[in-house]
Amino acid sequence: MNNIILFSVKSTLRPGKAKVFYTSSSQFDAVAVVGLPKKGTGINEAEGLDEAKEGVREAAAAGCRCLQADGIKNISVETFEDAEAAAEGSHLGVWKFQEFKTKKEDASIPEIVNYDKKSEKEWKIGCIKADAQNVARRLMDMPSNKMTPLIFANVAEKLLRPCGLEVKCYDKTWITSKKMESFLSVAKGSVEPPVFLEMKYKRGKEKDQPIVLVGKGVTFDSGGISIKPSANMDEMRADMGGAACVLATLLSVAQLELPINVTGLIPLCENMPSSTANRPGDIVTAMNGKTIQIDNTDAEGRLILADALCYAASMKPRFTLDIATLTGAMRVALGGAATGVFTNSPSLWKELESAGVYSGDRVWRFPLWKYYTKQVTDFPAVDVNNIGKGKGGGSCTAAAFLKEFSPPGDWLHLDIASVMGPNDESPYLHKGMTGRPTRTLTQFLIQLSRQA
User: Fold this and answer.
1) Which of 19, 203, 228, 290 is catalytic?
2) 221, 277 in Cβ contact below 8 A?
3) 10 is catalytic
4) Active site includes 228?
5) Were both Cys, which of 249, 314, 364, 388 would link to 441 (CB 3.0–4.6 Å)?
6) pTM of this prediction?
7) Which of helix, strand or coil describes residue 156?
8) Mind giving me the DSSP string for 218-261?
9) CA dist 259 to 202, 203, 386, Å?
10) pLDDT tens digit string along 70-128?
11) Which residue among the candidates 302, 362, 403, 439 is catalytic per the annotation?
12) Is the separation of the CB atoms in 267 and 247 below 8 Å?
């Protein structure tokens, strides 16, 4: 007997449930039978989901997990008429962060292959998307002493250079030469040196301006002098979730060989309390010359992103997208259901929303009204205040702050604090940091590459 396993599409089980049957067949050791949605299920506009695709992901994950738990090492997965979704659910479902456990809770990750070779192209796309998200999950769940700015930069080089990307790791001297005082002000409270990552993928036309992705890379956020409560502060190891998603998205774009130009920018540092840290009331000057009053040192993500966005402007981007675990207010607003999006581009919003429906990792649009701009700019002594005035709307004022530094043209800001983890309720993700919304970003770029 061998260890090749087949999922049957014929099942009376409830959707997303699985049951394993052991056989005496010479072809299979066991068969995992899984429940699928009813025929004809598709896009539910009220839910903003393609429920057929989600059902396939959930079923594939459930079956693979059952077989994995029984020690099966090789699994063949039926496509359920959607090879891409089946591959995503399978690869996401069996992955779990256990890097520092001497005794693993689960069996090792099995080898998963496509049973239906006719849909190999779609299967490969699903594998690339899921594996990229798993890369982001690992980066986000790594403890901060094992994922410092320098270590993150080394990981980026190791993963991206073999895929043909140009990766540059700039040090404090370079950052200082660019007059990124806002970024440096956050980094100066830690003994860990800051790093500014610039990663370039070029497979589009030479004349095409790059899409620029900017990711927040705070590898640990204590809050600084405005220190966070001790409860759950360990979760701030994942405050570089935006950076992780940018790196993972670039990896998937390269593996998919999309015909576009994409540049990733990641400012990396820690936000720590010390005698050299930012103090409430300090004033710094960003790369574009605007002055910023720092009334709360725990609103540091926008400070490092401000300079990264200013630097992005020098590239004359096709459009700019920044992504960050920026505000706890976003988690309050959306729970774990979706990523919050702020943008000045209705057309890009529609593309991103469509990508979220397709991937099952949804996005939701918030306002960029002048009301919020006034909250952060109406101050007598400085150009911008890092928390603004008034109560409520914290995610909106944070976006308004970033808008003051965004490059001319189309811009999107994604606040992923809501989907960071670690208690995510996605049925095909184990508890832990999520790597969301890597697959949505990848699908977004796939759609745009078809328009190039």
Assistant:
1) 228
2) no
3) no
4) yes
5) 249
6) 0.96
7) helix
8) EEEE--TTSPPPSTTGGGGGGTTHHHHHHHHHHHHHHHHT-SSE
9) 8, 5, 38
10) 888 899 999 999 999 999 999 999 999 999 988 766 668 899 999 988 899 999 999 99
11) 302
12) no
